[in-house]
Amino acid sequence: MCGIVAYVGLNPAFPIVIDGLKRLEYRGYDSAGIATIEPEGDLVVSKKKGKVADLESHIGSSLPVGSVGIGHTRWATHGPPNDTNAHPHRGASERIAIIHNGIIENFAAIKESLKCRGHNLLSDTDSEVLAHLIEEVMDASSLDLFDAVRAALSQVVGAYALVVIDKDNPGRLIAARKSSPLVIGIGADGSYYVASDATPIVGHTKNVVYLEDEEVASLDLEEGLRIRTISNDIITPEVHALEMELESIEKGGYEHFMLKEIFEQPQSIRDSIRGRINLQHGEIKMQGIDDHWDRWENASRILILGCGTSWHAGLVAEYLFEEFARIPVEVEYASEFRYRNPIIRPDDVVIAISQSGETADTLAAIKTAKSIGAHVFGVCNVVGSSIPRETDSGAYTHAGPEIGVASTKAFTSQVAVLTMMALHVGHRKGNIPQDRFSRLLAELNNIPELVEKVLGQASRIDVIAEQFANAENALYLGRGFQFPIALEGALKLKEISYIHAEGYPAAEMKHGPIALIDDDMPVIFIAPMDDVYEKVVSNVQEVKARGGRLLGVVTEGDKDVAALADHVIEIPRCDDALAPLLSVVPLQLLSYRMAVLRECNVDQPRNLAKSVTVE
Ligand code: AGP
Fold first, then answer.
1. What residues act catalytically?
2. Can you tell me which atom of ligand 1 is nearest the CA of 362?
3. Got the DSSP string for 474-528?
4. Mean per-residue pLDDT for 110-135?
5. Closest approach atom of ligand 1 to CA 495
6. Residues 351-394: pLDDT tens digits?
7. What is the position in ligand 1's atom list of the atom closest to the CA of 406?
8. Among residues 392, 398, 386, 397, which one has the least CA distance to residue 374?
9. Up-side HSE of residue 573: CA atoms within 13 Å toward CB?
């Protein structure tokens, strides 16, 4: 996600802000920018696609000297990475500059109304709309920036963490947040700092105030720190003493990025759903499908391409699309597809899934499919990466940067988006009765809360991990929607703990793998109470009879598997089609803890890269 750094004080802002942006680089970004108000009163903005170092090279040796400045590292959500879309953004009269982290859901409507009033917006971003809106409120009323920001934000739907500076008031920063964190630092010399997390601040001061949702702060060298709510209630700032060390803050206090990203899943799934589920109207909004509805309506087959974890998300999607859209689905390893002589028909719809958007095999497979005239829809996490630029349409997963090589939050966000796609196509094709559709929407919307409950078992899972950490092999077994999760759980374990693990359809055991069972073999069954539960219980009994150390991922209150397994991890009950979003989480935590116990390099496992950009 984006990074925000701002400073107002007695010293030049530039070095403080640039250093702060470098401390936020771990968050992942594609462009960077900075704005300062110079002593002569000019608002100077420099911004560049690329890294902070590229921004510094772009600025050159004549550094800004102003003592108020805002800086931003952009993780693109609206509009590809380029100089124009980089932050800060200015308003129409170039009096104010803004930096923003979050998603303004109603930005298109606001943008249209601003254009009707003569505003000329230069970028594709939702953030620039905010700058114009705030400035318009200031110009149309006697409100100063503090009140104008509050008034403007009362018109906004979505998530924001933002900082605004005003060249007519160079001794002040205005900050606001909703669903996207902001930390205020209070310097001993009366200076103020604002940042997305404490990383850029902790080297300057340990005294911080955490802005809460729908709060706006004025940080003024003369008037001090004032906080109001959007509805203008006065808030008394609560100052905290920072205790974390710099290194741990980058990981949000977690030992590894992978663990942080596992725990980010309630929020990353919310962000994937945000603006796409409308419970009130009982509908899903997937613009990338609706813009090409004829292709989906007349699709004779859906071909899903991906690698690794993304391929597993594709397997979940196979069950989802065949269940809800009643369209035949084939899931292919992109690396195999691209070198075969595949049969593709022009009425095929291809879904290409990739977290990084740069996987060479997936990109090449897309080009093969497109060359034969298929419609290609991309499901990707990195805005503006190669795959979204190559596909005919698509949907971003909005999971935020995933730093750990082992994919976790990106996978659940992929499955969330694919679930919405399958439901949307099925609903538009009239395959899903409205009451079932509305119920599934409500359940999907509540999945983040259920993931929170599963995460609450992390300490129990840690204890179970100790029982299995010395294993040399492991088997993951599931049926139906849970078969892809068996594969994903096995991949997680093998790629970070280096234990040889295999995922299988549970019924497949009888066709060979059951020969592997002995008293030492850990067997992880993913066995929620779904349509095939009884069949899986039989498989558990077959394995139990031959030894094996059994762990069951089961529905809360399960008795049958619990009576057979050595350990069980419970997940909340939900619709079969949504259960993969819950059942994968214990497997992520289990593999993480086993890898830590084996002292493996969890975030950068040996031989692996986060994005396989070569064949
Ligand atoms: C998953 O944990 C691995 N990092 C790997 O299998 C990954 O899913 C695969 O390389 C595909 O990457 P992509 O989603 O960025 O295309």
1. 2, 610
2. 16
3. EEEEE-GGGHHHHHHHHHHHHHHH--EEEEEEGGGGGGTGGGG--TT-EEEEEE-
4. 95
5. 2
6. 999 998 989 899 999 999 998 889 999 999 987 678 988 899 99
7. 2
8. 392
9. 7
Longest distance between any two alpha carbons in the chain, whole Å: 83
Specify the CATH number for 251-455; select among 3.40.50.10490, 1.10.340.30, 3.30.930.10, 3.40.50.720.
Answer: 3.40.50.10490
C-beta separation of 537 from 510 below 8 A:
no
- 610 has a pLDDT exceeding 90: no
Q: 567 by DSSP, 3-state: which?
A: strand
Q: Does an H or E element contain 229, and which?
A: strand 224-229
Query: Residues spanned by CATH 3.60.20.10 within the chain?
Result: 3-248
Mutate to test the pocket of ligand 1, among 353, 601, 612, 613 (most ligand atoms within 8 A of CB): 612
Contacts of 112 by beta carbon, 8 Å cutoff, 6+ apart: none
Average pLDDT, the chain: 94
pLDDT-above-90 percentage for the chain: 82
Strand 473-478 to 522-527 pairing: parallel
In angstroms, the CA 487 to CA 491 distance is: 6
Choose the residue to mutate in 331, 353, 355 for probing ligand 1, maximizing ligand atoms within 8 Å of C-beta.
355
Mean pLDDT calculated for residue range 14-34 = 91
Is residue 1 scored above 80 in pLDDT? no
Q: Are strands 160-166 and 96-101 parallel, antiparallel or unpaired?
A: antiparallel
Give me ligand 1 centre to Cα 315, in Å.
14
Contact 221/201 with Cβ under 8 angstroms?
no
Q: Which residue has the higher pLDDT, 92 or 9?
A: 9
Distance between start and end Cα atoms, the chain: 28
- What fold characterizes domain 3-248? Glutamine Phosphoribosylpyrophosphate, subunit 1, domain 1 (3.60.20)
